[in-house]
Design brief:
One of its GO terms (biological process) is iron-sulfur cluster assembly. One of its GO terms (molecular function) is iron-sulfur cluster binding. By secondary structure, the chain is an alpha+beta fold. The chain has three helices and three strands. Strands 1-2-3 form a three-stranded mixed sheet. β1 and β2 form a beta hairpin. The longest helix has 20 residues.
């Protein structure tokens, strides 16, 4: 389980520069092995962008699925932890 979390974090770090180039960023919050949900938080310009859900599913989730596990779902948690 920790290996998957680490792999998700590594994938996020690889895609992070693309988000930062647009004034945003992404933070890894947690990974739930039972549900295969990776919880992240979009910040900066990404937090309020109307295209953020599209970026999350077509960009971040697709990349993580290719790199880590094709069944992972990425969820944007806008709550402050």
């Amino acid at each position: 389980m920790e290996d998957i979390s680490k792999s998700v974090m590594e994938a996020i770090n690889l895609i992070r520069p693309a988000l930062q180039n647009d004034g945003g960023d992404i933070e890894f919050i947690s990974y739930d092995a039972e549900s295969k949900n990776a919880h992240v938080k979009l910040v900066g310009a990404c937090a309020g962008c109307p295209m953020s859900q599209l970026t999350l599913t077509n960009g971040v989730q697709r990349f993580i699925r290719e790199k880590v596990d094709p069944e992972i779902t990425v969820i944007n948690d806008n709550q402050v932890f």
